[in-house]
Amino acid sequence: MKKLLFALFCLVSLCSCSKKIALAQSASSERSVAAESKTVGSLNLNPEIEKLGRVLSSMSDRAKEAIPNGNPEEFLADLHRVLEEEKNTHRSDDLDLLYLIDKKHNVGSDYVPKDLKPVKNNDLWNVSRNDLSLRPESYAALEELSRAALADGIKLMVSSTYRSYKYQDGLFKRYVAQDGLELAERYSARPGTSQHQLGCAVDFGSITDDWGDTKMGKWVYNHAAEHGWSLSFPRGYEDITGYMWECWHFRYIGKEACRFQKKWFSDVQQFMLEFIDAWKKSE
């Protein structure tokens, strides 16, 4: 198999077989996983590598195909850097920074991020309305992103941030009335399933497709990940994310997570978040 750790999930799911399956190793690897695992039948595996195989086997075929060849131990080292960053960044009394929320994973109508900070016009950015806010980690990251943009002569426009369950409910109903349910569901989240309710997502600029071709849009697209911001709904992945391409919608996930996403998941946020969710839930 040509993709990263397919051999791993074969080790887990085909444990009745007796033939050896070697894992891809980098030249710098201190020991071969093939030697470590020996045979599929014996399943003499590093516990985390065995867990990795189980998690990968649970993912969609397209997600598996997005993962490149590589060393499982390197993958796990990168994963732990992401989890450590998340642990050090967010507070224990709120949802994880990498919480998976989508059409299949939601939050309740009573969820409000802790200590939301107002996002007002200031020297770092402009806003399109006066009722915007973000959770503290995302606010600090927006400050960092905006300073970097200003250094390149660009002042960011923040157009949408945290949305309550009630606000999203009204917005979704308005879009359904305007465009019908089928189309509305392609570009608007049902209440409880929006990244905006987590307080870590920002819509920039005009919230239109042509924003991506503006000077601001191109700068954000090229530099957001350096400051921990990830494009949530990339072009060509509507079947994965559930939503049409949105060049303006970025979620703060942290710098290590952005690097992990780009290196191991073809830079698709949804694949990485699904993996981390499954990893945390796996025994």
Tell me about this structure.
The structure is a single chain. This protein is of the alpha+beta class and 283 residues long. Helix content is 43%, strand content 8%. It has twelve helices and seven strands. The chain has helices spanning 6-13, 33-37, 47-57, 61-66, 72-89, 136-151, 165-179, 181-187, 215-223, 238-241, 255-264, 269-281, and strands at residues 117-118, 125-127, 133-134, 156-160, 201-204, 229-231, 249-252. The chain has a five-stranded mixed β-sheet with strand order 2-4-5-7-6. The longest helix is centred in the N-terminal third of the chain and has 18 residues, at 72-89. The radius of gyration is 21 Å and the shape is globular. The two termini are 26 Å apart.
String of helices and strands: HHHHHEEEHEHHEHEHEHH
The overall strand count is 7
Number of helices: 12
Q: What does the main sheet amount to? A: 5 strands, mixed
